[in-house]
Automatic annotation (TrEMBL):
This is Tripartite tricarboxylate transporter TctB family protein. The keyword Calcium does not apply. Keywords: Membrane, Transmembrane, Transmembrane helix. The chain crosses the membrane at residues 9-29, 41-59, 86-119, 125-143. The keyword Nucleotidyltransferase does not apply. It comes from the Bacteria. InterPro entries: DUF1468 (IPR009936). Residues 9-152 form the DUF1468 domain.
Amino acid sequence: MTQLNPNRIIAILIFLMSIGYLWMAFQIPTFPIPRPVDSDAFPKILGWTLMLLSIFLFFEKSAVSAEKEEEPAQVLSFSKRPAVQVAVTGLAIVIYAFSIEPLGFLLSSILLGFGLAYWYGYRKHFVNLGTMVTIVLSLYLLLNKVMGIHLPQGILPL
């Protein structure tokens, strides 16, 4: 029998949450006028993606248990403590929420993703920047051009 590590417990909770989210997404009424993308499309895509990612998380091999077996206990630096990481992430999201209007969706989202990846220790800056630009620009184009949801442009001329 497999052991329930923290990743598996979280995966089960996310899976159950995605079921509830999908149930609510399927309650969204469709418009009587035919549209290429209806109002329920994005919530359903998010729900199915959340469910799929929770399944991946459940079957992921836990790196935490392997580290505990290999290395003796060590004192974490201040920035690596879980409470500090949660606080910094929460503060970054609050700053993101206030910067999205003046800076725009693209720039503020790229800065948030790049900054948090740097904070958590990812040091391949060009890969990180390329990934953030690709993901945020794709999401911006999907929402703005395909779904007709206008996001704040900020200082970038788009």
